[in-house]
Design a protein that fits this description.
heterodimer, A: three-stranded antiparallel β-sheet, about 20% strand, globular, B: alpha/beta, seven-stranded mixed β-sheet
Chain lengths: ~140, ~400
């Protein structure tokens, strides 16, 4: 099995890796039992994702797609961000081996979960800048 | 620096083995079955290699049958014994952590109407003779238990297990593919009826295996064809491969105790450094009843394939039991059989040494692991949550694999 240069680049030099203080939304998807968990933090200002961070437990493809997804979403409006699909993440990485396609699905879902978390917090009238993150179980 | 610590996957052909094989491509190339001089010199080489293999495991040359690989030897032993003894019964006993060459053959035999008991191993990977004793029935025909496990390195108490089978008049097969050259084997003293091996695990080339069949044990043939291998295994002999496996087994079994002691030094140095310098790490397999070249550890909160990729970038070859490296949904069946939870099994690493690995290489690998494990944990949400005392729970609702 061979990864593309782009996948290896994002694996070795992940963009936006880390935690976020006071995120507007957090999404965690996957399962340790299956071998991959992705968590994406977003900071939203005026409907725009101004900052994004991720942490991932998983294989090379899981780490690279997390990194790429955060890169794609930064600076986008929420609506634009929701248009990002796993295929776009995969294409931006020059493709993935067939057995690894599910990793790009997780990246899309982690992102959607983070946005949903932000919307839920708003709906509840919470201040988005909260220390206590809520983990969404999707 | 390039370090090869995946000798459980395959080994390099060493120079003396290559030198022994060299003449058997261009110069001595006859068909061992031919009556002319070309054939006779090839036959002589085949029989010399058979004698070398026999001597290495305490067998008679006539009990050594060359096959295409270890998998063929395993298939032949199980299927051959199951069908040859069908009038006695259709019950087979094995373990739940055998190599797929055994497990998948057993599953196929189940489809064909045989009944298989899979003995569970304990948390160190051991089978107790009492377990076997309790599982044997009047219709049991063959027991197959691996000599040493390929992933976690645990060495089974084969002499005691084979003794139980013998006392009940049941055939005893052992898959010794990983054990040759690591453990002293004497098929006669240890009451082994059938034993499989594979050349490329001990510095012979790929594509050559052996099945030892104790004299008097009858097996059905797998294939139909010519009269090679006492008419039991048809197909023109892999002449150079046979010469190679003969030379290789001679080299790895002479002075085996001293050789194993040297490997153990490197292995233990590596294990000591990993366990001391990397927290939240578990050694898998039996602490002492383990192969002299096997290191298998699980690093919590990280995944094996990421680890392998980072090691590879540092020139280190190893393997993992994570699902991502097995190409299936589940981590290694061996790690699950010893009771590891899935998430710990995903973070497993096997380093399999041969006698050529040095302390210096072990240090290079240990240094690399300290750095890589810290790096991967720094990006792991599991590690974050662990440090904060939270549970990372999630369902597989979004996991497209379930």
């Amino acid at each position: 099995m061979e990864y593309t240069e782009q996948v290896m680049d994002h694996f070795m030099n992940p963009r936006n890796m880390g935690e976020m203080e006071n995120p507007s939304g957090v999404g965690t998807v996957g399962n340790a039992k299956c071998g991959d968990i992705m968590r994406i933090y977003i900071k939203v200002e005026d409907d725009v994702i101004t900052d994004v961070k991720f942490k991932t437990f998983g294989c090379g493809a899981a780490i690279a797609t997390s990194s790429k997804a955060t890169e794609l979403v930064k600076g986008k409006t929420l609506d634009e961000a929701l248009q990002i699909t796993n295929k776009m993440v995969m294409d931006a990485l020059g493709g993935l081996p067939p057995v690894k396609v599910h990793c790009s699905v997780l990246a899309e879902e982690a992102l959607h979960a983070a946005i949903q978390d932000y919307k839920d917090r708003l709906a509840r009238g919470e201040k988005p800048a909260e220390e206590e993150e809520e983990v969404r179980y999707v | 620096m390039r370090v090869y610590m995946d000798n459980g996957a395959t080994t390099r052909v060493t120079e003396p083995v290559m030198a022994a094989m060299q003449p058997y491509f261009c110069e001595i190339f006859g068909n061992p079955s031919s009556v002319h001089g070309f054939g006779r010199e090839a036959r002589k080489a085949v029989e010399a290699a058979r004698a070398q293999v026999a001597k290495a495991i305490g067998a008679q040359p006539r009990e050594i049958y060359f096959t295409g690989c270890g998998t063929e030897a395993d298939n032949w032993a199980l299927r051959g014994a199951a069908y040859a003894n069908i009038r006695k019964g259709k019950h087979i006993i094995t373990t739940n952590f055998e190599h797929h060459a055994i497990l998948h053959t057993c599953q196929q035999l189940e489809k064909e109407g045989f009944e298989v008991t899979y003995l569970p191993v304990d948390s160190d990977g051991l089978i107790a003779p009492e377990q076997l004793e309790a599982a044997i029935r009047p219709d049991t025909t063959i027991v197959s238990i691996m000599y040493a496990n390929n992933e976690i390195g645990t060495i089974e108490p084969i002499p005691a297990l084979a003794q139980v089978a013998k006392a009940h008049g049941v055939l005893f097969h052992t898959d010794a593919v990983q054990a040759i050259g690591h453990v002293a084997i004497d098929v006669k003293a240890q009451n082994i009826d059938l034993l499989s091996m594979s050349g490329h695990k001990f510095h012979a080339p790929k594509g050559i295996g052996v099945l030892y069949i104790r004299q008097g044990v009858r097996l059905e043939r797998l294939m139909q064809g010519g009269a090679q291998e006492r008419a039991q295994r048809p197909g023109t002999e892999n002449l150079a491969g046979i010469v190679g496996i003969g030379k290789a087994i001679e080299l790895v079994t002479e002075d085996i105790e001293a050789r194993a002691a040297e490997m153990r030094k490197v292995r233990d140095h590596l294990i000591d450094r990993i366990m001391k310098e990397i927290p939240y790490t578990k050694l898998n397999g039996h602490p002492t009843q383990r192969m002299c070249g096997n290191v298998n550890v699980s690093f919590q909160f990280i995944e094996g394939e990421s680890l392998l990729l980072h090691l590879d970038l540092k020139g280190i070859a190893a393997s993992s039991g994570s699902a991502c490296t097995s190409g299936s949904l589940d981590p290694s069946h061996v790690l699950l059989a010893i009771g590891l939870p899935h998430e710990i099994a995903h973070g497993s690493l096997r380093l399999s040494l041969c006698e050529e690995n040095t302390i210096e290489e072990a240090d290079y690998v240990a240094d690399a692991l300290v750095e890589i494990v810290a790096r991967l944990r720094a990006m792991s949400p599991l590690y974050d949550d662990f440090l904060k005392g939270q549970d990372t729970e999630s369902t597989c609702g979004t996991c497209p694999r379930t």
